[in-house]
Every structure is written in structure tokens, then in C-alpha cells.
Design goal:
This protein is mainly alpha-helical and 347 residues long. The protein has 2 domains: 120 residues, Farnesyl Diphosphate Synthase, CATH 1.10.600; 194 residues, Farnesyl Diphosphate Synthase, CATH 1.10.600.10. Helix content is 70%, strand content 1%. The protein is built from 17 helices and 2 strands. It has a two-stranded antiparallel sheet. The longest helix has 28 residues. It starts with a helix and ends with a helix. 43% of the residues are buried.
Length: 347
């Protein structure tokens, strides 16, 4: 099996598992409710298809982590890891991710996601809150299905990891909302936000994935930290692209982060410098026609260079933990390749 075939096989298994889990609501009296979830997951409704589903990167990282454990680094060598046995955990992580997106769209008042109307825009906020809650509950039903293939203590451990991450997600989201209109934030505040909102879920992918590959505790920890620092580097790189990225390459408007007043790392760096940018930022919201000028001012004050340096440092940390984790075989090569793609997606 080539790496490409391995990826496609895993993605197909993930999609099948997600549909089976969400089908818990496919009953006569809750079909419209089920439709809300299938719509959000990108399977039904106008614009359904690959562009609407997203790339399923998180569950893919989970399964690649399981499949890439070196036999010599397994905790229980009498059992051979089978990534197919971990599919329900990968599904659980993707469902948690999508639960957070449904609620984020409400909190951010976002009318579109991936070019389609958001759940709350189509069905109203109360229904969308309930749909997000359903995704959250089904995620836990999904991870408990690990009991079909794993001992109870491992199922409990995987569930505990997911619970801890969910709490971190809510903490990160709280901080993000609480910090929206503040101009006195420090770079230290920033790490607390993205550690919860972005890095925690990616760390859960490699943490749970390696656990289900029967890796030794020190290898599991290396995988966890690999995922965590990939998440940090990914978010910093996203901050750079959100201001200076090529929209044709990234698919994201380079104006949106500045116009929306996002407290990204380049912005916080420049605010701490307290120069011309800080003065303008504190006056009033940035207008679309000012974006190019403000971006140039940020770059002149060293914000772009600083953020790129921090992204590189976090990437190096991630790769150093990957060396300790020793991902093996085709799955290991693809896991490292996927991480590299995430961190260099502007190229």
C-alpha cells in the first residue's frame, strides 16, 4: 500500500465511522435534527461535498499516530496495533472539533462556513446550540466504542484525555472572547488562548493515537508534545498568513484579521513595542482600505519577522519531539509530511 492509498483508506474509514455515529439521530421523529448534523458535516444540503466537509486532518493525524508506533516502542508487544480499531476515537475528535465550530459560529456571529450558511443561520441559534450539543454527546458515545477492541483501562484513559482537552477548548474560547476588546494584552496571554483553542486538540490527536498504538508512556508523551507544538506553530503561521498571506494560495482574506481587530501574535508584539502601530490600533477599528498600509507598518516595526521566528522555533520543538517519538513506516512518513504541510501551507 502506498502512502497515498493509506491516506485515502484512512479518510474513507473516518467518513464511514462519522456517518455511522451521527446516524444515532436518524430516527423517524428526529430526521430534521439529523439533517442539521449531516448538513454541518458537509454531507447534505446545498454545496455538500469535499469542500464542505473539510480535510479531516485531526482524525487522520490520530490514525497515523496509531499506525506509526514502532514495534520496539510498544508497551505491550503481545498486541499489534491496528489503526482500524482506533477509528471511533478519531471520529470522536472530529466530532468535538465540529461541535466547537457550530458553537463558535454562533459566538462569532459568522453567517458562512466554507462558503455555506452556518447551522444557526439556517435553523436559528437555539436549534444550532442543540445541534452542537448533540455532536458533543455523540463524540463521547463514539470514543466509548473503543471498548470493542481495547481494554477498559485504555478506554477510560482515552476518554479522560478527551475530557481534559474539551475543558481546555472552553477555556481558550472564553479567553478569546474575553480579550476581544482589550488593548492591554501581553504575548503571555496569547499563548494561553491558542494553547486552549488550537494546540490542545491537535495534541489530543497524537496523544490518543499513540496510546491506542500501545506505545510506551515516554513515547506517548513525545507524541503528545509533538502534536501540541505543531498546534502552536500552526496558529502562529496562521496569524502571519492572516495579515500577509496570498489570498489566492491560502483561501483566506489577508484583510480580515486586521479589520476584525484580532489579537494575533504580530499585533500583540507591535502593541508591546508601543510605536505608531499601537497608537493607530487603539484609536479605532482598522478600515479595509487601510489594511495594506497597516500591514506594512506592522512589518516595519518587526512584527512579521518576530512571528515567523516564533513559528520556526515552535516547528523546531515539534520536530525535536517527533525525533523522540520515532514514528515508523509509511504512516510515520506521512504523519511527518502532514505536519510539514500544515506548517508550510503558504508555499
Amino acid at each position: 500500500m502506498t502512502t497515498s492509498n493509506l491516506q485515502q483508506t484512512m479518510l474513507s474509514a473516518i467518513e464511514t465511522e462519522l456517518k455511522n455515529q451521527v446516524a444515532r439521530l436518524d430516527q423517524a421523529h428526529t430526521k430534521p435534527f439529523h439533517e442539521m448534523l449531516t448538513y454541518h458535516m458537509g454531507w447534505t444540503g446545498e454545496g455538500a461535498g469535499p469542500n464542505a466537509t473539510g480535510k479531516r486532518i485531526r482524525p487522520l493525524i490520530t490514525l497515523l499516530s496509531t499506525a506509526s508506533i514502532n514495534r520496539s516502542e510498544q508497551n505491550n508487544t503481545s498486541k499489534e496495533a491496528n489503526w482500524l480499531h482506533a477509528v471511533s476515537a478519531a471520529s470522536a475528535i472530529e466530532l468535538i472539533h465540529n461541535f466547537s465550530l457550530v458553537h463558535d459560529d454562533i459566538q462569532d456571529n459568522s453567517e458562512l462556513r466554507r462558503g455555506r450558511k452556518t447551522v444557526w443561520t439556517k435553523w436559528g441559534q437555539p436549534m444550532a446550540i442543540n445541534a452542537g450539543d448533540a455532536l458533543f454527546v455523540i463524540a463521547y458515545q463514539s470514543i466509548l466504542d473503543l471498548s470493542k477492541h481495547y481494554p477498559n483501562d485504555m478506554v477510560v484513559q482515552a476518554s479522560q484525555i478527551l475530557s481534559e482537552v474539551c475543558l481546555k477548548l472552553t477555556q481558550g474560547q472564553y479567553l478569546d472572547m474575553a480579550y476581544e476588546n482589550r488593548h492591554d494584552l501581553s504575548i503571555e496571554d496569547y499563548w494561553h488562548v491558542i494553547g486552549g483553542k488550537t494546540a490542545s486538540l491537535l495534541s489530543a490527536c497524537t496523544h490518543i493515537g499513540s496510546l491506542l498504538g500501545y506505545a510506551k508512556p515516554e513515547i506517548v508523551e513525545a507524541y503528545r508534545l509533538f502534536g501540541y507544538h505543531v498546534g502552536l506553530a500552526f496558529q502562529v503561521q496562521d496569524d502571519v498568513l492572516g495579515i500577509w498571506g496570498d489570498e489566492a494560495v491560502t483561501g483566506k482574506s489577508a484583510a480580515s484579521d486586521l479589520v476584525e481587530g484580532k489579537n494575533s501574535l504580530p499585533v500583540l508584539f507591535a502593541l508591546e513595542k508601543n510605536g505608531e502601530f499601537a497608537k493607530r490600533w487603539k484609536q479605532s477599528p482598522i478600515k479595509p482600505e487601510e489594511v495594506h498600509e497597516i500591514a506594512n507598518l506592522l512589518e516595519k516595526e518587526g512584527a512579521k519577522e518576530y512571528a515567523e521566528k516564533i513559528s520556526a522555533e515552535q516547528t523546531q520543538k515539534a520536530m525535536s519531539y517527533a525525533e523522540q517519538a520515532k514514528p515508523d513506516g509509511e504512516a510515520g512518513q506521512f504523519l511527518l509530511g502532514l505536519a510539514n504541510m500544515l506548517l508550510k501551507r503558504n508555499q
